Amino acid sequence: VVWWKGLSNEYVYRSEDGLRAKKYRIDNNRRSTRSTTALVEDCSSTCDPPRTKNKLVSVHETSSSVQYHSECLYKHFPEEASRSLVDKMQEPPYGSLFQTIHVPQGGDWIVEAIQHGTLMAVHDGSYQPDLDPTVCSAALALGCSATGRRGVISMAEKTDEHTASNYRGEALGALLHAALMHVCTQDETSTFQPVRVGCDNMGIVKHARDYKLALPDKQKQADVIRSMRAVIARLPMALNYEHVYAHQDESRGAEDLDDMEQLNVIADRIADNQL
User: Fold this and answer.
1) Given Cys at both, which of 116, 215, 259, 270 links 139, Cβ 3.0 to 4.6 Å?
2) Burial letters for 190-227: b for 16+ Cβ neighbours within 10 Å, e otherwise?
3) 9-23 pLDDT, tens per residue?
4) CA atoms within 13 A on the CB side of 13
5) What are phi and psi of 57, to 5 degrees?
6) Per residue in 77-100, pLDDT tens?
7) Is 217 helix (H, G, I), strand (E, B) or coil?
């Protein structure tokens, strides 16, 4: 039970559920003791409580009377500003993955696309040892088949010349995508549809499809692949992986490429630029 005053200070309200309230007025002519004053219930029926609580009130309530005792100011905390998907991406545990983000409208359309089954995603990796043998990169290109919106996310990782490779970059792309899907699907009240995902590395496609299977002994880049698989296992919807052939723009014009092939071209270029 909560007792409080509204802005007018004229009445004291009592509510058990916050939805309906009984209204009392302070009767200064019926002071019971030095420290308490009688409250008289208003004759009207229960009412909608005022939205603004100005002061919380302490009372002594018995079966036959209600005594007003004291009050204190009610501190109003501003409501948390709604956070966009991009805001959530930059928080733990995945914030360090999403290094470069170019997604319009705060990225909230990505969540809507998953809910409607219209999200397409293609990830790619890059490694150019002549630039730096210790660095590889990954990029994720996103598109909505219903609205035509697109966005890209990319990252680079510096390890050592024995660890960095093109295959690791490809695996990082899969991890990047899985992490984004996990951030997008935290609302347990929503329903999410399967997502169409493409990659031009068949080995990574198989690892993503077979995420429940054990990894072979001495699997290369096992740390990234295990992380990717663990995140996929936590998703509330399926990832429908498919192989997309790389560099299709070298033999065909952009207008002849389907959506997934176009996204692959974008991911490939962004991954190269991230190095």
Assistant:
1) 270
2) eebeebbbbbbbeebbebbeebeeeeeeeeebeebbbb
3) 677 777 766 567 787
4) 25
5) -120, 140
6) 454 457 899 999 999 899 999 999
7) coil
Q: Which residue, chain included where needed, has tokens 């996310």? A: 153
Residue type, 256: D
Which residue reads 């207008």 in tokens?
255
Q: How many residues make up the chain in this entry?
A: 275
CA distance 40 to 48: 18
In the chain, % helix, strand, coil (3-state, to 5) comes to 30, 30, 40
Q: In angstroms, how far is the first alpha carbon of the chain from the final one?
A: 61
Q: How far apart (Å, rounded) are the C-alpha atoms in residues 93 and 80? A: 21
Cα distance between residue 125 and residue 30, in whole Å: 80
C-alpha angle with apex 134: 182 to 152, nearest 5 degrees? 35
Only one residue has tokens 């995508």, namely 177
Q: Which of 239, 230, 234 is nearest to 199 (CA)?
A: 239
Pairwise pLDDT comparison (199 vs 187), residue with the higher score: 199
